[in-house]
Amino acid sequence: MFACAWLLAACAVRPPEVPLQRFVEGNVQAVASAMQDQLDGPAENRALVLNVLAQCELLLGDHEAAWRHFGEAGRIMGNWQTGGGEAFAAIVGSEGSKTWKGDPYEKAMNAFYLGLQYLWRGEPDNARAAMKRGILADAEVGDEKYQADNPLLFWMAGRTSRLMGKGDDASSFFAEAAAADAFARQHGSRGDERGAVLGRPEAGNLVLLVECGMGPEKVAAGDMGELARFRSRWHPAQRCTVTIDGRPAGETAVLADLDYQARTLGGTEMEGIRKGKAVFKTGALVAGTTLLHLAARDRNRDRAVTQAAVGGGLLLLGLLTSTEADVRHWPTLPSTVQVLLADVAPGTHTLELRFADGSGTVLPDLQQTWTVEVQPGTESYYLFRSLPGLDRQAALRGGAEQPRSESRP
Q1: Same domain for 93 and 129?
Q2: What's the structural domain count of the chain?
Q3: d(Cα 346, Cα 21) in Å, to the nearest integer?
Q4: C-alpha distance from residue 408 to each of 165, 249, 376, 379 (Å)
Q5: pLDDT digits 0-9 by tens, 250-271
Q6: How far lies 330's CA from each of 47, 54, 177, 351, in Å?
Q7: Containing structural domain, residue 168
Q8: Could you tell me if 184 and 290 lie in one domain?
Q9: Which residues contact 186 (CB under 8 A, 6 or more apart)?
Q10: pLDDT tens, residue by residue, 270-280
Q11: pLDDT digits (tens, 9 = 90+) for 231-248
């Protein structure tokens, strides 16, 4: 029995090694190289490695590689079919023995990034489809459905609907975005009560998507390590103020709070998601031990054999059942995704991003200066992150690859 238990425990896949401190320091290239080296690692980790790699490529301006890798990761994460052996190993063995497909918030972010890539490729229809897939991922787990409460995905679906000339669809998505935001804030999400973005969802020919902080960490808790809990990672950057050509453009507004998204499903806390497995293990061990004890004392041989067989089976299943939660997660995600909308004249503009902590104190090490281009009759989307030196790294590379503008209907 113990040999079998050891063999199943050995099937657990170790999480990929992500040099998170280098990422926080802004050394995105080092993280990308580390992920490239791990692409040939365990197949069960491939989607996770691809997501981190694609995110680094996105920040480094390699949009083509990011599009390919986000797409491959998304196909793995969206495939809910598992082989019988893998399913059994995940039930009685370690959760880490199965293919990583991410929690709902991670599926949603993969869809967001992939949709953004499609938008930059001039494919708003595919961008909208990706956002809709993210909305479904945010609301469905297996056969269970929850309240979809990620305003960012609804809002982006509305913007891409407008680019397709589907005004009625856009209005519906914008209304859903406002409802999702109100619901999420009622249940503990950080949001902007002033409605700076959702109050005027169609505004702006320059759309700035700004990612602040570091996303949550997934840890095991409980007596048997059976509970998958999320805890926030500390990072000083919480808000961003923007100036355009030296003039104040305003403060970004939170549209996605990933700490909230990770720890809840439709406003319901997920802390006890694995508790049933621990209850089963304890019950199986107690029942198995009791039956073996009764078999040893029973003078009826046939009944004793039956009790011993059933008790041994329960004891074996209890020993083979690992209650340890799978704590693999996407560690390079931001804490929040925020948005600022601006109407600017066509041409080249200089942006200054000033990140601040919760008290409003500006963080000079994170300040960034970028040049953006807005063509006549278009709206342009740009993505930024509160990491030090990304603008200087782009300058050393000869300028970051700029996103393609989208024609406005």
Answers
A1: yes
A2: 2
A3: 39
A4: 8, 22, 10, 6
A5: 999 999 999 999 988 765 665 5
A6: 10, 12, 25, 29
A7: 2-274+324-407
A8: no
A9: 267
A10: 554 444 445 44
A11: 999 999 999 999 999 999
